[in-house]
């Protein structure tokens, strides 16, 4: 239960990070207090001026304004956070969905399309037709008792379904007396393909479902990523960012860099002693920053050494 709460808190912080455009927690807190102090101060001055110097009444009124402001901001923030959650979840789910689709082989993709059709209303008697693949038909099914030939295309983003694929399906439909066909693509269709399907629509109807319609079908079939899967994606991203930060911190404070921090800091300190103008305070500040980085580097190096001592590979498999 405690782990679940911790995970949920980390996920919420991830959403808040996107909501506030990656502002740090401390900067958000600072803005929070600054805005409210300004609201309280400005409203107090206005009420104090118009109430002809009534301090307590002006303060009470300004505090009421602050409460109203806080409530309104909170309501707006909740709406924005909900919208951010939906946008982030949709973006992550879509990226992961297409990553999984692109990793499929053609046979796996056709089977996945069959599963989608099986979970959509109106479709029945769905059958994968390996023996008709050479004719451009991957699946035969019924939609509202009407026989339909389905052609599936698993393509890269740069590619689109060519007109020859539609012509191949049309010839197979003509031989087998099918009146309706569907071409499902993970990308889009070339203009020639759309023109050909429009040209033959009086004889045979071929519906073109591009990646946008394909995603809609997946969602309607309940095969899109669930909330738990999206949460796991977010936790993986958080862990990845933490690893990157850890590597950057170790690189910043690794052993070879510690000596230059103290060395350059000492040079700046000497210059600040020699120079008598007001510029010396900048040297003082620079020296202090470099010394602090050096001290942090010493502490970080010591901690990393301790971890390496107590977490060798053979300790992990005991």
Layout of helices and strands:
Layout: H1 2-19, H2 25-50, H3 55-102, H4 106-118, E1 123-128, E2 139-143, E3 146-153, E4 160-161, H5 163-176, E5 180-185, E6 188-189, H6 191-199, E7 205-209, H7 211-220, H8 227-252, H9 255-274, H10 280-310, H11 313-316
Parallel strand pairs: 3-5, 4-6, 5-7
Antiparallel strand pairs: 1-2, 2-3
Care to describe what's here?
- It is elongated, with a radius of gyration of 32 Å.
- α1 packs across α3 (55-102) and α9 (255-274) runs antiparallel to α10.
- β2 and β3 form a beta hairpin.
- The chain is α/β, with parallel strands linked by helices.
- 69% of the residues lie in helices and 11% in strands.
- The protein has a five-stranded mixed sheet with strand order 1-2-3-5-7, sandwiched between helices. A two-stranded parallel sheet has the order 4-6.
- It folds into three domains: 2-102, no CATH class; 106-220, Trna Endonuclease, Chain: A, domain 1 (3-Layer(aba) Sandwich); 253-299.
The gist of it:
This protein is α/β, with parallel strands linked by helices and 318 residues long.
Properties at a glance:
318 residues, alpha/beta, Trna Endonuclease, Chain: A, domain 1
Average pLDDT score: 86
Task: Please give the CATH class of the largest domain.
Answer: Alpha Beta
Question: What would the CATH topology of the largest domain be?
Answer: Trna Endonuclease, Chain: A, domain 1
Count helical runs: 11
The tally of domains stands at 3
Query: Count of DSSP E strands?
Result: 7
Helix vs. strand class: alpha/beta
Going across the major beta sheet, what is the strand order? Answer: 1-2-3-5-7
Report helical residue fraction: 55-70%
Q: Report the β-strand fraction as a percent range.
A: 5-15%
CATH-defined architecture of the largest domain = 3-Layer(aba) Sandwich
Q: Please write the string of helix (H) and strand (E) elements.
A: HHHHEEEEHEEHEHHHHH
Q: What spatial form do the alpha-carbon principal axes imply?
A: elongated
Main sheet? 5 strands, mixed
Instruction: Report how far apart the termini are.
Output: 29 Å
Report the radius of gyration as a whole number of Å. 32 Å
Q: Catalogue the unreliable spans.
A: none
């Amino acid at each position: 239960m405690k782990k679940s709460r911790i995970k949920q808190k980390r996920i919420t912080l991830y959403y808040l990070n996107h909501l506030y455009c990656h502002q740090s927690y401390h900067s958000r807190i600072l803005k929070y207090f600054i805005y409210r102090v300004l609201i309280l101060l400005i409203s107090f001055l206005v009420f104090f001026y118009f109430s002809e110097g009534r301090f307590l009444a002006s303060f009470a009124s300004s505090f009421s304004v602050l409460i109203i402001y806080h409530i309104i901001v909170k309501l707006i923030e909740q709406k924005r956070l909900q919208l951010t959650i939906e946008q982030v979840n949709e973006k992550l789910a879509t990226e992961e969905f297409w990553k999984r689709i692109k990793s499929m082989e053609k046979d796996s993709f056709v089977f996945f399309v069959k599963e989608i059709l099986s979970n959509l209303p109106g479709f029945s008697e769905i059958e994968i037709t390996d023996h008709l693949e050479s004719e451009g038909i991957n699946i035969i099914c019924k939609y509202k008792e009407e026989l339909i030939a389905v052609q599936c295309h698993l393509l890269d983003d740069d590619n689109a379904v060519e007109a020859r694929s539609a012509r191949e399906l049309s010839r197979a439909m003509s031989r087998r007396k099918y009146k309706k066909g569907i071409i499902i693509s993970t990308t889009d269709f070339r203009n020639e393909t759309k023109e050909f399907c429009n040209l033959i629509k009086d004889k045979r109807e071929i519906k073109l479902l591009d990646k946008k319609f394909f995603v809609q079908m997946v969602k309607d079939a309940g095969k899109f990523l669930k909330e738990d899967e999206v949460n796991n994606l977010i936790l993986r991203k958080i862990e990845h960012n933490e690893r990157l930060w850890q590597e950057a911190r170790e690189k910043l404070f690794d052993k070879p860099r510690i000596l230059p921090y103290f060395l350059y800091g000492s040079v700046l300190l000497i210059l600040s002693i020699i120079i008598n103008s007001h510029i010396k305070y900048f040297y003082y500040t620079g020296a202090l920053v470099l010394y602090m980085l050096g001290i942090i580097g010493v502490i970080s190096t010591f901690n990393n050494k301790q971890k390496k001592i107590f977490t060798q590979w053979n300790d992990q498999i005991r």
